[in-house]
Amino acid sequence: MSPTPKIGALAVVLHKGQVLLVQRSKQPDAGLWGFPGGHVEWGETVLEAAARELLEETGVIAEPIRYLDNLDLLLPGPDGQIRAHYLLVGVACRYISGTPLAADDAKDARWFATEQIAQGNLPMSDRVPDLLRFALQADQVSDRPDSRA
């Protein structure tokens, strides 16, 4: 049987002009900042996985709202052959409660001003700025009053 990609969920939480990021403690991306997330478990939706992983890694509770984007992560080995393949799904989540405290696979967890991410002066995982941009656009759309009312 040939290997298959693993599915991961990334929780993108915006709150008061800030975004929640974790510093990874394990490979891939050890030491880099990224969105809390992890593997989708059997029988669990990606939305459920995003909320669960967020709570496990940071202690923050949020409601998963919508899918944002899919990211392919292909990790080659020393011989150039693909050794791991992940399909990461960004999920916009609405903050409910909690103060970030690193746990599980996170070395650190904290809020960052969204402008700081755009400046690119933080060591981050690939596509963090892109996924944040999608989340900010989706957040603006959801804040607009319904023009049909």
Radius of gyration: 16 Å
Oligomer: single chain
Task: Give a short account of the largest sheet.
Answer: 7 strands, mixed
Q: Uncertain runs with pLDDT below 50, 5 residues or more?
A: 144-149
Judged by helices, strands and strand pairing, the structural class is: alpha+beta
Query: Rough shape?
Result: globular
Number of helical stretches of at least 4 residues: 3
Quote the average pLDDT: 89
Please identify the top-level CATH class.
Alpha Beta
The CATH architecture name reads Alpha-Beta Complex
Kindly report the name of the CATH homologous superfamily: Nucleoside Triphosphate Pyrophosphohydrolase
Question: What's the number of structural domains?
Answer: 1
Helix % is: 10-25%
Number of strands: 7
Order of helices and strands: EEEEHEEEHH
CATH topology: Nucleoside Triphosphate Pyrophosphohydrolase
- How large is the share of residues in beta strands? 35-45%
Distance between the termini: 54 Å
Pfam family, one: NUDIX
Cofactor: Mg(2+)
Domain Nudix hydrolase: 4-136
Keywords: Hydrolase
Q: How would you characterize the overall build of this protein?
A:
- Belongs to the Nudix hydrolase family.
- GO terms for molecular function: hydrolase activity.
- Its cofactor is Mg(2+).
- This protein is an alpha+beta fold.
- The chain has a single domain, classed as Alpha-Beta Complex (Nucleoside Triphosphate Pyrophosphohydrolase).
- Strands 1, 2, 3, 4, 5, 6 and 7 form a seven-stranded mixed sheet that branches.
- The chain is globular.
- The relative contact order is 0.25.
